[in-house]
Design brief:
The protein has six helices and no strands. By secondary structure, the protein is mainly α. It has a domain of about 90 residues: Tetratricopeptide repeat domain (Serine Threonine Protein Phosphatase 5, Tetratricopeptide repeat), CATH 1.25.40.10. It is rod-shaped, with a radius of gyration of 38 Å.
Length: about 170
């Protein structure tokens, strides 16, 4: 009887833990994973739809913001892409995703790869360590008023009488 009780207690203790673990590792993919898989298979339209869905669910998640930047960049909208990459730099400084599609990005953070994209587009961002982006260019000097030379005095016209006609002596 005691042996049966131990088996029952073991089942009651292990079963909930097993269900919890299996629920956490189910078929649910992480943020951006579905879109990345579709990009790998060459289906950019489906990937774009997944990236937009991820962004709508979590607009401040570093991966969602970065992937929206990639989406805009792929579509040729560099202004929107750089804005999203700049946002990704600010919120993804310590976020290291499982995978990037970009080459040479192993162990990189979202911020590092987003800064690379910004620099490729000739954009500076203070969060990327671009100190020149912090410097406000000085205002152009005010134009110096130069003294205008006085105009030459006007020549007064003289009244002239017509010369009398010359007579021929012959």
């Amino acid at each position: 009887m005691l042996n049966l009780w131990r088996k029952g207690a073991l089942v009651c203790a292990v079963l909930p833990v097993g269900l919890f673990v299996s629920g956490c590792s189910g078929t649910e993919m992480g943020m951006g994973a579905a879109g990345v898989a579709e990009v790998k298979h060459g289906d950019w339209q489906a990937a774009k739809a997944d990236f937009i869905e991820d962004y709508n669910k979590a607009p401040r998640h570093p991966i969602a913001v970065f992937n929206m930047g990639d989406t805009y960049h792929h579509d040729g909208d560099l202004q929107q892409a750089d804005a999203k990459f700049s946002d990704a730099v600010a919120i993804g400084k310590k976020y290291q995703p499982d995978e990037f599609l970009e080459p040479d990005s192993k162990n990189a953070t979202i911020a590092e790869v987003a800064c690379r994209h910004l620099h490729e587009d000739s954009q500076l961002d203070a969060d990327c360590g671009d100190q020149i982006a912090l410097v406000v260019p000085p205002a152009p000097p005010a134009p110096v008023a130069e003294a205008q030379p006085e105009p030459a005095p006007a020549i007064e016209a003289q009244a002239t009488a017509p010369e009398p006609a010359k007579q021929d002596r012959n």
